[in-house]
Every structure is written in structure tokens, then in C-alpha cells.
Amino acid sequence: MKPTEIDPDLFQEQGFLILRNVIPPDRLGDMRRQFEILVERQKAIWARDRGPEEPPGGAWETRPQPRVTFCDRIDAATADTVSFCLGETTFEVSRRLMAAPEAAVHAMYLMCSPVRDHGPAQWHRDVGPGHPAPLEGLQAIMKEFRPQYVQWNIALYDDHVLWVVPGSHSRVNTPQEERALAENPKVPLPGGQPAELRAGDGVVYALPILHWASHYGPKRRRCIHLGYRAFGSPVFPYVHWRHWDPVFLEHLMPWARARFERFLDLWRQEQQVIGQIFRALIDGSSVGFSDGLDRLHPAHSGRMVALVMLSKLAWRIRAFKPIESKTSSPEERLQKMKSHWHGSLLFRELTDSFTVEEAEVLWERFKPLDDRLKVAGARALPGWQGPDSPYEASRMPDLELDETLGMLLRRTRG
Fold first, then answer.
1. Is the peptide bond before 132 cis (omega within 30 degrees of 0)?
2. Less CB within 10 Å around the terminal CB: N or C of the chain?
């Protein structure tokens, strides 16, 4: 399989593609061997760190889907598992589907079978109610600029767990789906179909698609779960964080290390622009804010979505800063940081730019927009990730861009 053989238009239409031999047959045995070494390393850590009420294996024995952040466990002998994420059948296919000038690896996990039967999970989209923005806003960006983020499941053994609803990435739930999800979100949805993968096959899909883990049982499962995001596109991607820190780079071959160092540069440049936008808001500089927004999201369309996503990030900074100031040790600070953002070093670089007081001012700027994103009362929403939420899940707020900019930039002096 080559990137040029992929059909981006079909992906755009149905929201997923099943691709054969993403792991070539002559490479499958070695990949299985390396990943099993990483599983054993993680199992030892879970056993060591188990709680007093947990069984001897800790999370390995209790979770319905034990998930290994495999990049954190590699050494030189198992680094090919990370190099695989940079190959033609993974990275280059992703970049083509996103129509991205550049791209970066966002997440590297291995999903494993549990030790006992846990049954099915719930149908959901990999977004929360209103996070990172209301669904219709995310879908409008995808329709105009193609998906700016893609996820993968790549099977090391035959895998029939994942189901998807074709085309659901580009629309809100139908009334029939709403009724079915409310009645029982753990049974097949109308129109759902299994992504049947042979060993070495992969399914790549758009973030908001309705999907379902049909069964978590003890039958052996090892499924590589990857994420990729776009850089250099006309819009601010709706997945702009990352699920790794660069602690593993020392184990990579020089060419692979150079690729990840480029990813770090891309994220750092983006964080600097976000920092400029936030600093301009704190200082009340309309010129600095407008310049930063032009750089972060060059396209005129979709800017309301970018502003909503920035409001979510501003909230996280404001929520974390008081905790940070009261944290006594670097280890405790790191754990608190991970609870607020994925990719702790990336988040730290941004939060270190602001004091507690500045974070409060920043949030005061965004709070009127945040208020417009809410509905009365927190409620559970079947088909979404996360706890009960007061945020509107699907519809963007009834605000014009100029009105929103004026709201954010009130009392400016720029």
C-alpha cells in the first residue's frame, strides 16, 4: 500500500477507510515480538504501582482495555515500534488524508485485551459535549478543509472489535440514533458496521465519527492506536495537544529522532503564537491579538471555532495556575499538570508564560464567550465522551465573528 493509492475523497465521504497490510506480512512477526516486550514492561509497572485494594496485576487485571503508551517503554531494541509510526503506510497516508503541508504524531498507544470479559463499551464520538468545540463547528472545518486529525487502529492479530457508522463524522445524530443511544448505548446502532481487520490491517477514521468497541473480552488483542494532526493548514486543528513527551527520543535512530525533533519545533512555534494571542488579550492589545489570530488560523472561515478552542485552553491555564503555585514537589506538579492537559511539557511551556493573576485576567476575557457556549444545567449526553456537561454539544453559539472579537477585546488599548 502506497499513499498515492489512498482515496481522500472516499475518506471525506464516509469518515473512515480500511487499509490492508499496513504492517507488511514479512514485518508482522517482529512487530508482535517487540510490542509484547513493551506490554510486559508496562505490566510490571502496573503491578508495582497497584493500589492497596487492587489485585496483584493492578490495572492490567482491572481495566476493560489495558492501554500501553508504548513510546514511553521503548529502548534501542524496541524502537522500531515508534519508527513504524513514521512510515509510508501510517504517517504519509495520514498526511495525504489531511491534505497537510506537514503533520506530526499525536498519540502512540497499544490497546490490549483484558484478563476477563467486560462486554461491550458505549457508542461515542471522540469529543466531549462542546469540547474542543461544538460538533457542527468541527464538522464545518472538516468539510471545507478536510479532517485536520486522523486516528488509527492497526491490528497485530485479527480484530473485529471496532464498529463505525459511515458518514456520521459529518453530521449530528439522527433522531433514530438519539433514541437508540438513550435506550441502550451498548448495542449495534442502525447503520453501524464492523471494521473487520486481519492481522496487519488498519482502519483510519475521522475524530468525530460515531464508533463502538463491540466487545472487550480475553481473546488476545493487540491493536496499535495512533493519532496524527496537521500543521501548516489554513485552520487551527481541533486536536492541537499531544499525548507524549520527548523522553523516548534518545532511543530512536538518528533519522527518526530528527523527525520527532521537527514535531517539537512545530508545536513550539504554534505555542508561541497562542502565547502571543493570550498575552495580547491580557494586555488589551487588539493589534497583537489580530496578528496572532491571523498566524494561528489564516482562513477567515472557521475562526469562531478557533476562538472556542482557545477559550478551552485559557480555562485549563486558569484552572492549573493556582494548583501549580501550591504544589510542593516537581513530581506532584507533573501529576497535576497531566490531569489538566495531555503532553505535560508542552502545557508547562505555555503555562510558565503567565502568572496566576494573568491567568485570571485571560479567563475574564474569554468568560463571556464561554457563557454563550453553555445551556442551563449539567446533563448526561449519550454518544459523547466525558461526564455530565453544561455545554451545548452540537450547535455553535449564535454569535458573529466581529461581535465575538469585540467581546474578547473589550476595554482594549491596542
1. yes
2. C
DSSP string, 280-332: HHHHT-HHHHHHHHHHH--SSTTHHHHHHHHHHHHHHHHHHHHHHHH--SHHH
pLDDT tens digits, 218-241 = 999 999 999 999 999 999 999 999
Pairing of strands 202-206, 222-231: unpaired
CB atoms within 10 A of CB 285: 18
pTM: 0.94
Burial of 102 from C-beta contacts in 10 A (0-12 / 13-18 / 19+): middle
The residue ranges of every structural domain in the chain are 3-259, 265-408
Grid cell listed for 60: 492490567
Domain 265-408 part of CATH 1.20.272: yes
Query: How would CATH label the architecture of 3-259?
Result: Sandwich (2.60)
- pLDDT over 50 (residue 214): yes
Cα 287–347–363 angle (5° rounding)?
Answer: 50
- Pairing outcome for strands 202-206 and 149-155: antiparallel
